[in-house]
Amino acid sequence: MATIQDMAITSPPTDGISGLSFSSQADYLAASSWDNQVRIYEIQPSGQSIPKASYAHEAPVLCVTWSKDGTKVVSGGADKAGRMYDIATGQTTQIAGHDEAIKSVLFLDQGQQILATGSWDKTVKYWDLRSPQPIGTVVLPERVYSMDSRQQLMVVGTADRHVVLFDLNNPTTIFKQTISPLKWQTRSVACFIDGSGYAIGSIEGRVGIQYIDDNEQARNFSFKCHRDDSKNIYSVNDISFHPTYGTFSTCGSDGTIVFWDKDSKQRLKTFPNMNGTISATTFNRTGNIFAYAISYDWSKGHKFATSNDSHRIMLNSCRESDIKPKPNMKSRR
User: Fold this and answer.
1) What is the DSSP letter of 44?
2) What whole-number distance in Å separates Cα of residue 189 and Cα of residue 87?
3) 7-299+308-332 belongs to which homologous superfamily?
4) Helix extents (H) in 25-146
C-alpha cells in the first residue's frame, strides 16, 4: 500500500499512463495516457488535486512536457503528431510531425522556445514553435525510446542499446555516439541536473551512471535494482532527478520506487510495494512533491493488459530526510 501521506489524483487517466511532467513555474501536473488524452491538474498545498484541462490526440499519447515559462504543454503520440496546448487560451495546435510515433518531447534549456522531438522513425527533429517546418533534423541509428536534456547536454537512448549525445551549442551534429553500458534494452535515460552526465535504465533491473568528460570515466558504474527475493528481474521504467539535490528515483515493473544518491552510491529510501507496476515519475520544481503513476507498463505485452487494470497517479510529500544526499562513509574513514 502507499504510505499515509501519499494522495491520489482526482479523475486519473482511464488507460495506461505513459508520462508525467510538472510545470517549472507552479504546481501543475500534466499526464499523458494511452486513452489518447493529456490531462492537467492543479496541485494544492494540501495535496488535493483539481482537474483543470484536457486535450486529445488521435492515438495513444506517449510523452508530455511543459514549456519553460509554464504557459504551454506539449505532447507526442502514436498519431505521429506533436501537439501543444496553450494554458491561457485553451487552444490545441499541432506543432510537430514525424513519419512514426513520437516517443519523447523536450523543451531545450537554451532560453528559446525550441522543442526537440524524438520518434520511432529514427530521427530527432528541432522545432521553432513559430514555424510549421522543423529547423533541424538528425538521423539516428535506431528508434528513439527515451531522451532527456539538461544545460548543454541532450541524451537519446534508442533501440539496439545505442546512446546518442548532443552538445546543444551545436544541436544538429551528434557529439558522441556510444553503446549502453547495460547489456539489455534501454528503457529510460535522465540527465544529471548539472549536465555532466546521465543515468540509463534497462529492462533488466539495472541502472548505469555515466559521465560525459573523458577524465571522469573512472566514476562510471552500474548497479542492480528492481529485483525480488525470487530472483525475478524487472524493467526500470523511469528515472527522475531531484531538482535541488541531484539525487534520483527509479521505478520499476516490480511495483517499487527507490531513491538513490549516485555520489555516495547509497540507497536513500525504498517505498512499499504498490501492488502494481510503476510506469512514470516526476518531481515538482521545488522537489517537495514526488508524483508517480501506478499503471500497467506493457512489460509483459498486451496479453497481461486487462480491463480491470487500475490507473492511479499518487502524490508523495517528499521529505528532505528521504532525498537529501548522505555523507559517503568511505570518504570519512
Assistant:
1) P
2) 28
3) YVTN repeat-like/Quinoprotein amine dehydrogenase (2.130.10.10)
4) none
Per residue in 49-98, pLDDT (tens digit) is 999 999 999 999 999 999 999 999 999 999 999 999 999 999 999 999 99
Locate 266 and state its grid cell: 547509497
The rounded distance, in Å, linking the Cα atoms of 252 and 294 is: 10
pLDDT for 203 equals 95
In sequence order, the 6+-apart residues with CB closer than 8 A to the CB of 330 are none
pTM score over 0.90: yes
Q: Judge contact between 17 and 38, C-beta under 8 A.
A: no
The secondary structure of residue 222, as a DSSP letter, is E
Taking only the tens place, the pLDDT of each residue in 223-281 is: 999 998 888 999 999 999 999 999 999 999 999 999 999 999 999 999 999 988 999 99
Strands 7-8 and 312-317: antiparallel
Concatenated DSSP letters for 262-323? TTTTEEEEEPPP-SS-EEEEEE-TTSSEEEEEE---STT-GGG--TT---EEEEEE--HHHH
Look up cell 527522475; give the residue. 240
